[in-house]
Request: fold
Amino acid sequence: MGAFHAYDIRGVWGRDFDGQTAYKVGYFIPGLLGTDKVLVGRDCRLSSDEIHDNLLRGICDAGADVYDIGLSSTPMVYFATAFYGFKASVQITASHNSREYNGMKVSRENALPVGLETGLGQILEWIQTDRPTPLAAKRGEVHSKEIMADYLEFMSKFKKDLSSLKIAFDLSNGMANLFAKQVFGDAPTYLFDTLDGSFPNHDPNPLVAANVEPLKKAVRELGCDVGVIYDGDADRVMFVDDKARFVSPDLVIALMASYFCDERGEKSPRVLQEIRSSKAVGEYLASYGAEMHTWRVGRAFAAPKLREIDGLWGGELAGHYYFKDFFYSDSGLLASMIVLGIVAGLKKQGRTLSEKMDELTRYKNSGEINFRLEDKAGAMKAVCDLFSSEQKPLTVMDFDGFRLEFEDWWFNIRPSNTEPYLRFICEAQSEEKLAQKVSEAQKLLETRFDAKRV
Reply:
């Protein structure tokens, strides 16, 4: 059962999980979440129909009814779960992973995520212990449910006049194709604008630099003001500026103050960032009197935390952005609407997105570096001990790995929740200090833990 992770169920279809797993997940969800109605959506992956059929059979055999919204982005499922008051939902997707992967994202009432610590672990235990799955006295039924009209009406209040902008979109052959042209019209340039679960043009992961190259090329050649790229299930979005440079997703958290604070007039907002975010985010938002909260990586942690602090918005380095206005959930579409509105406002002022991002970029950043090694806990402790012995840290965060902050630099080291990697990220005021600290960490990991940088 290698498909059960901290945030969701995900793995290579036919290897890490199969139809029987999907059936049992469906069977156990109604009892786990105390409901007789389960909302279900699916992405366009080649295996999604088979998973869908097994999942629905399990839900119905347990005596619950299915409300099937068909092909959908993951945020559409979050919307429908909260908007219509469902107590349970499942989106069949593997998000940004390549074509051989698939999985399921489970949500409870108010679109709160169900992770390993909040329910998926219980389902895994029931599967592993062969908990019986007797047919209910009255088998559930499947109902088709149309949500697109309500979804687009809900999102329309965030739409701005973008007619002054030249925009290029990369829809990644994924679920953004369901709504992009309806929302943004025919004027933009669209790349890979057909639904195709084989992802023939590139993997639907905007964090891999090669996957963003077609968008960068379009921005350069067409002279666009901005480029937008969604991942496979459209819960994540990333941007390319007018100079065809990739915009670091954590800095977009800071950029969004232009909408929430400057435009809407929100005072002293509560904002959520994750443990890998640049120090520049908090420093910039401090000028708005923002109350910054730092927390763990992943929707299973971020969405409940934003609700707990009653935050207005938040984000992650992976391109997830969470909004109180969207049921404290993440939405690639809403994030792109907000950012494009900001870019349109900048253009009216005679400014560009690249100029604004240069203003927000205050540090030199390594980006996340992955090391493959066995003793993750020992390696994390060794790196922390190394740097703490050189200089006493000003701040220590000990959740989701460790983040140690010093006067002119910081680092975070954490184990991946979904891959066999230890992840290291470092930021400093100078290129020299950054290179020095990355080199020290890499040398320690390679010599003491036989780590391989990947």
User: Anything to note?
Assistant: The CA atoms of residues 48 and 92 lie 6 Å apart. The longest strand covers residues 101-108. The radius of gyration is 22 Å.
